[in-house]
Design goal:
six-stranded parallel β-sheet, elongated
């Protein structure tokens, strides 16, 4: 199907346009070297990635704060790989991770091609649960900030996707309406169900190949989105 009435397209950033897992892995390699942590990075990441996703779920649900997320995801991962690390070093690694994360800026295949295709015809926007400073640095350093009219992040609104308040704030900032808008993201709960419950359509970028309800529109690669627009 091709959308006829859409004027504004809202994208998630991490895991949708910005290749979070790849950039995160490179960041850990860098900060472990800086801090002289002798560890098998691939083994660390195997445990870290699901732990991190679980803590982000708790963060979305307002069950933990930013500082707890940043510390606990590292602490739990070191415990999972049976490496004893002092609290002070974990705190230092946590800070270094945020400092260096946006120095790596791999995008998903097709990101630039898609944005170049959409930008002349639509108003493009970002809605992200990521932290304000880090997300802006990612957009700038990846050279994609110029494609987006507005950027809404959870820190500026005070709530996170799937809370309808953040979607409402984004629409107000973009000066558009529900019927003219669509959300594209990878996270089923935050991006897709959050948008649909709010009243705007959504397409899931299902690169992780999660099983989805047959009613959910999905693409496996970003360039497949051209079929909708």
């Amino acid at each position: 199907m091709m959308y006829k009435n859409i004027t504004d397209i809202f994208f998630d950033l991490d895991h949708t346009l910005w290749d979070f897992d790849k950039n995160s892995g490179l960041t850990f390699e860098k900060i472990f070297k800086i801090n002289k942590v002798d560890i098998d990075v691939s083994e660390f990441l195997k445990h870290y990635e699901p732990i991190n996703l679980n803590y982000w779920k708790l963060y979305r649900e307002e069950k933990i704060d930013k500082e707890s997320l940043r510390f606990a995801r590292l602490n739990d991962t070191f415990q999972a790989v049976n490496i004893s690390v002092e609290k002070e070093l974990i705190l230092q690694l946590s800070e270094d991770y945020i400092t260096h994360l946006s120095s790596f800026n791999h995008l998903f295949e097709g990101t630039i091609d898609l944005l170049e295709y959409l930008e002349p015809k639509y108003n493009l926007h970002i809605i992200t649960n990521g932290f304000h400073q880090v997300q802006n640095e990612k957009l700038e350093n990846a050279n994609i900030s110029n494609y987006f009219k507005t950027v809404t992040n959870s820190e500026m609104v005070g709530v996170k996707k799937p809370n309808p308040i953040i979607f409402n704030h984004a629409l107000d900032l973009a000066k558009t309406t529900k019927s003219q808008s669509i959300m594209i993201g990878d996270n089923y709960e935050a991006d897709i169900i959050g948008a649909l419950n709010f009243g705007i359509d959504a397409i899931c970028f299902n690169y992780h190949n999660f099983p989805l309800d047959a009613k959910i529109k999905k693409v496996d690669s970003l360039l497949e989105l051209k079929n909708y627009f």
